[in-house]
Amino acid sequence: MKNSFLIIFLLMTSFSVYSQEISEDSLKVLTMNNGDIRIGQILNDDGREILLLTKDVGKIYIRKENIKSIVPYDAKNFKIVDGEFRDVGPFTTRYHFTTNSLPIKKGENYAMINFYGPEVHFSLSDRFSLGVMTTWAASPFVLAAKFTIPTRDPKLNFGIGTLVGTSGYFNAFKGFGGLHWAMVTYGDRMNNITFSAGYSYIKTGITQVRSIYQPGNYPAIPDGFGGYYFDYPNAVGISTYEEPIGTAPIIGIGGIAKVGKKASFIFDAMVLFGKQNYASSPPQVYYVLNEVYDPITGQPSYTEVTKNSTTKSDEKVTIAFLMPGMRFQTKENRAFQVALAGALVKTETTTNAFPVPMVSWFFKF
Known about the structure:
By secondary structure, this protein is mainly beta. It has three domains: about 1-75, SH3 type barrels (Roll), CATH 2.30.30; about 80-205 and about 245-275 and about 315-365, monomeric porin ompg (Porin); about 210-240 and about 285-310, no CATH class. Helices cover about 5% and strands about 60% of the residues. The chain has one helix at about 1-20; strands at about 30, 35-45, 50-55, 60-65, 65-70, 80, 85, 110-115, 120-125, 130-135, 140-150, 155-165, 175-185, 190-205, 205-210, 215-220, 230, 235-240, 245-260, 265-275, 285-295, 300-310, 315-330, 335-340, 340-345, 350-355, 360-365. It has a twelve-stranded antiparallel barrel with strand order 8-9-10-11-12-13-14-19-20-23-24-27. It has a five-stranded antiparallel sheet with strand order 4-3-2-1-5, with no helix packed on it. A four-stranded antiparallel sheet has the order 17-16-22-21, with no helix packed on it.
């Protein structure tokens, strides 16, 4: 009986010692060159190899030439999912198009490329990041900024963001636009939901060219081939008119949910309630060409050209984007994402829907 108590005591003591040896305060995160992550306590480092005590497989030797970085373990930055340690890096701050209120850690930059073009984002602090977005033609060009506001509740975060851009060398830098918004995110890095609201505007800088006709009566002149043409100038002058600025309040919802060891469900949706500000634009001039025929001969006699001006009211338009999809992250520093996205555009006279496929690749650097 005494021997049994002694064995139980020794086992309990050994377990206690092991638990102390693998305490969370002593844990280190080893990121390998191939993207794998190992977490445990470093028992020995001889300069060539590291002896690591892990919770899952015990002691393992790792050659230092295969290690990319070693940092202290922080429960805020790493989570255990299905028995595996996961880095909650910069990809977790992004959905398809929109972002959430979770910050990008300082020094954790990321790039994303898709069918439409590349973008890259730099974390200047634990709460502020800057990025650039463009197309494969390097125009238009957009500057992105985000500032996050944490609360005492780690699952509740606020943030503000902005996008400002130019048409670039398209249309000689005459076009510009912007989107400014605020957001609130509830949840952790693996599972969260974000509500956002903001205001957008765009001016294409495109100039419409109109011909100016001189009102009056213009005689019909035989063309020598049995037909007639009317002797009035096609254009007495040229009038130029720039497309008006378009504005739109915008609301959005986005979220992410872990559905497997390497996969997450991503949802993104936005609705813009826009209008084209024609009311503040110059009046539009319409020309009416009326061919007058001789009542006796039945042949064209002259053309009467008249004009009238009308002021067009603002034109309302609603645009909705719906973007459900999946993200697959097999490495700590890269991920692949696909969305079955679509758009709905409704004006006062028409309604159109069309697909907007989204396939993206994320890279951490």
